Model the fold of this input.
Amino acid sequence: LPSLSTCDISIDKPFKRVEFIEGLQSLMNAELPDLKSPDAEAGVIQMFHNNGIPLPESATLPKLLDRLASKYLEPLCQKPTWITNHPECLAPLSKSFIDPGTKQRVSARAELFIGGKEVVNTYEEENSPFEQRRKFEEQVKYRNDDNRADIDEGYLEALEWGLPPTGGWGCGIDRLVMLLSGTDRINDVLPFGNLRNVVSLGRGGRNVVASQ
Done:
């Protein structure tokens, strides 16, 4: 720990707020296509080409938008900054609405970034089984090796029984420790390692037993 740098980020309130779509459009000096249109993915890919940005593997619409956020929005969030109103496809379990400014369908979701890293993720839960089914069906369209999205019939049945207005809020303790300790690697603050470490140790243990 003595070798780590100290945290010198100001957390004075109020925290800055940046709307996802408006922020991207301002920084890229270009408008995103209608993200609900059939050619939305092609339109965003063209924006990548126009700006000389390498495409991510499995370039689905959610992955493309996430890559743009990581390139343009997140690096600006050194001081505590809320990124709000993500495109609907990035938060399928969240309620959504038409943004009056951009006319795009966005989610009732916000992420708090400090030092360029996500610390908090929060959103209003979708409690309509009909809307949730539509969003699950949308996610299935983006299914690939990285995205195993499926229609969760059990979850939809539970929503049919009823879910009151609900908000979700999650804060990564490991990210907070990274911030306070001045480290950039999450592995440096995980007391028991990551999942890959645990799986490797488990396999190693089985190999030792087998050899005996």
User: Anything to note?
Assistant: The first strand starts at residue 16 and ends at 19. The longest helix spans residues 195-211. The helical segments are 20-28, 40-50, 61-73, 129-140, 153-161, 173-181, 195-211. The chain is about 40% helix and 15% strand.
